[in-house]
Design goal:
It is a single chain. Helices cover 49% and strands 14% of the residues. Strands 10, 11, 12, 13, 14, 15, 18 and 19 form an eight-stranded antiparallel beta sheet that branches. Strands 1, 2, 3, 6, 7, 8 and 9 form a seven-stranded mixed beta sheet that branches. A two-stranded antiparallel ribbon has the order 4-5. Strand 11 (260-265) and strand 12 form a beta hairpin. It is globular, with a radius of gyration of 28 Å. Bound molecules: adenosine-5'-diphosphate and magnesium ion. Residues 191-193, 195, 275-278, 324-326, 334, 444, 446-447 line the site of adenosine-5'-diphosphate.
Length: 696
């Protein structure tokens, strides 16, 4: 096999600091570096030099175009390509790229969702360069990561609120760290590593399924005789086409600077996972978008289709995105890493309980940050965390917190116990080995893992919410601790009170258990099952206050986002319903009817010579099922017509959830029962078995 030089290809398509240092004059490079580290603004003169160097580098690497690359609220990325060409007076062209074009772009934004923001302000949208995320080359185009906002500065994208949240988190956390004597810490970054799950099927079967083509998931389909019961797929050996795909994907991602690290099979047949090495939250969000896009592109090159939908196949594990989150100071210190001294551990405990309080106080917003029609099909299903927010800390940490709350020394297992001030703090084991795959938010040693995010979603909002909620709690803590007469005592009481007030959200048990739903209710935890139940909480006073206090979302931006998400929910279900109706009328009904006719004819023929009991029974079943199926077509048609009348009405999402989805479920049940009865060769679509085992 041809060897690949990974260090050489890594980031070869990224305009990163090494490239900048090589290509920019020293004084300009210094200014750019300051922009990156302390967020200093760049003048147009500097931007001109950077743009020129970027262009030369991009052209040498095969680019002819550039684009401002941004993440509107559609969940995917957007780009509009401009070439570098510029005409000269002698009828020729030169390749040109100005600082102005680099720094700011104007986008005809009317086709992106804005939730009424643009119409009340200005019709134009602007893209603004985010120099903290490197430019890169994708398919011959220089992509410049940008934020996208309205003329008045309202965020129209996923990136801007995330950047704002990182700023407030850093500011508040630095305040606290000063009190612990960290004079050298000037900046704290939220770090994220997003594990991405996906399905691979062959293009051939994909192209025969309208539901996959139009909606990304199957809307009909009888379960295969062999599913994941045998657990023989998880981390099993890779089939060679899959191995070839993953190799190509890794190389493609490495060139683009994405730190793709781990790859393996997941629980369901045809399901796989990719995990990157973590980076700062904004870079991780960009890299996750690139990863999703490349997963699809590379699959196409290999005659496959990559499905990123949360629930492509009913009855089979869905796909999520585990969002690993931690906090790193500019000195390299991980704030969620238990320390070696009691002093360090007190600081760790404070960060830990701050996260617990943040998630408890803003549990509805955490749920909202991952709410959409696709993820509703997964959250709460047997393989995904429930829609209830809770935190897994593991037995040992939980015992430590309990002992602090009760004011008794912790009876450490194999750890050394030490005293600080009035309370006893053990030396923590660094490796938290307990694993609980059912928890939506689990502490895993030196980071938290938020597991509710859906596989196709942008993780920008989830991290913006988490960062802001954490920043708010740390703000409150800093206010208390800065004014404390006795720091150690105040700190101890603060940790103790926080545990007491927020321990309801700590749950180390089985999140899939029905008993947990009841217990969570008794604990007063929110259980926002579906998107229309969750979204309206965006406008709860405490949430509006949180985001406006920290400058992450204004109230207008929150209202706009609510409107966009509600509309998005109804649109997705509407399209799914129409696709089902298309398949039901044009494909399933004719197949079932033809088959019934053939059975009837055979029965008639057979009756001349002998018994035709089997045909009669089958025909009777087929006929009544087909009648019921037809009735459900009419029911779904009526529900869709009703829903369409109320587009734009905020209650419409609930109508879709209650009426349209249940009509879809009824139609599917009949359709799947027909598939079970019909001649396989007459069935108009590839079966679940054919799809899930399409890659050999
Ligand atoms: P596991 O899921 O088995 O705990 P890993 O240690 O491999 O395993 O981590 C999973 C993901 O968490 C990876 O994407 C990794 O980069 C990320 N991760 C590890 N440390 C951090 C951190 N400090 N901040 C954010 N993400 C992290
Ligand atoms: Mg994990």
């Amino acid at each position: 096999m041809k060897s690949i030089n990974v260090p050489e290809i890594f980031a070869s398509l990224v305009f990163n600091e090494t490239v900048m240092q090589e290509r920019l004059p020293a004084d300009i490079y210094e200014i750019v570096k300051k922009t990156l580290t302390v967020g200093k603004r760049m003048t147009l003169e500097v931007a001109n030099v950077v743009a020129d160097a970027m262009k030369d580098w991009a052209i040498e690497n095969g680019a002819t175009h550039y684009t401002h690359w941004f993440q509107p609220m559609t969940g995917i990325t957007a780009e509009k390509h401009d070439s570098f060409i510029s005409p000269t007076s002698d009828g020729k062209v030169i390749m040109e790229f100005s600082g102005k074009a680099l720094v700011r772009g104007e986008s005809d934004a009317s086709s992106f969702p804005s939730g009424g923001i643009r119409s009340t302000f200005e019709a134009r949208g602007y893209t603004a360069w985010d120099p903290t995320s490197y430019a890169f080359i994708k398919d011959g185009t220089l992509c410049i990561p940008t934020a996208f906002c309205s003329y008045g500065g309202e965020a129209l994208d996923q990136k801007t609120p995330l950047l704002r949240s990182m700023e407030t988190l850093s500011k508040q956390t630095v305040r606290i760290l000063k009190l612990f004597g960290h004079e050298d810490i000037t900046n704290v970054k939220a770090t994220v590593g997003a594990e991405q799950e996906y399905f691979l099927i062959s293009k051939e079967v994909f192209e025969k399924r309208k539901d996959l083509i139009y909606t990304g998931r199957t809307l009909f389909g009888q379960k295969p005789p062999k599913g994941q019961e045998l657990d023989d797929h998880y981390s099993g050996s890779l089939k060679s086409p899959v191995a070839a795909y993953m190799k190509d994907l890794d190389e493609t991602l490495w060139k683009m600077g994405v730190l793709s690290k781990t790859k393996h099979n997941e629980a369901a047949p045809a399901q796989h996972e990719l995990a990157p090495i973590f980076s700062s939250a904004n870079v991780a969000v960009d890299q996750n978008q690139i990863t999703m896009e490349m997963m699809k592109k590379v699959a196409d090159r290999h005659g496959m289709v990559c499905l990123l939908h949360e629930k492509p196949f009913a009855g089979v594990n869905g796909s999520g995105k585990h969002n690993n989150w931690s906090l790193t100071a500019n000195t390299g210190l991980n704030l969620l890493e238990p320390g070696d001294t009691p002093h360090e551990n007190a600081q760790f405990l404070l960060m830990l309980v701050a996260t617990v309080k943040a998630v408890d106080d803003y549990q509805e917003m955490m749920r909202i940050s991952v709410a959409d029609a696709g993820n509703d099909l997964r959250l709460g299903a047997a393989e995904a965390p429930p829609a209830i927010m809770s935190i897994f800390l593991g037995d040992e940490l939980t015992e430590i917190l309990e002992s602090i709350e009760e004011g008794r020394p912790y009876d450490a297992r194999d750890t050394v116990q030490m005293k600080i001030g009035v309370h006893a703090l053990p030396k923590f084991p660094k490796d938290n080995t307990d694993r609980n795959r059912t928890s939506p938010f689990a502490f895993t040693g030196n980071k938290f893992e938020f597991r509710m995010a859906g596989s196709s979603q942008s993780i920008a909002t989830a991290n913006a919410v988490l960062n802001t909620a954490f920043a708010e709690v740390i703000r409150q803590f800093a206010d208390i601790l800065e004014n404390a007469d006795n720091f150690n005592e105040t700190l101890h009481n603060l940790i103790k009170d926080t545990i007491k007030n927020h321990k309801r959200i700590i749950f180390n048990g089985n999140g899939y258990d029905d008993k947990w739903v009841k217990e969570a209710e008794e604990r007063g935890l929110a259980n926002l099952r579906a998107t229309p139940d969750a979204l309206p909480h965006m406008l709860d006073r405490k949430n509006i206050e949180l985001f406006s206090r920290h400058g992450v979302f204004s109230e207008d931006e929150m209202r706009a986002r609510l409107e966009i998400q509600l509309e998005n929910y109804t649109k997705i279900i509407h399209i799914e319903a129409l696709t089902m109706l298309d398949m039901a009328r044009h494909d399933i009904l004719p197949a079932a009817s033809d088959y019934a006719a053939r059975i009837a004819k055979n029965a008639e023929l057979k009756s001349k010579y002998g018994s035709c009991e089997a045909e009669k029974k089958l025909l009777s079943k087929l006929s009544s099922l087909t009648d019921s199926f037809y009735g459900n077509i009419e029911r779904l048609e009526a529900a869709c017509a009703e829903g369409e009348k109320n587009i734009g009405n905020p209650d419409n999402a609930s109508f879709y959830k209650n009426e349209v989805i249940s009509a879809m479920e009824a139609l599917r049940a009949d359709g799947d029962a027909l598939e079970e009865l019909c001649d396989a060769s007459l069935w108009p679509f590839p079966s679940y078995g054919e799809m899930l085992f399409s890659i050999k």
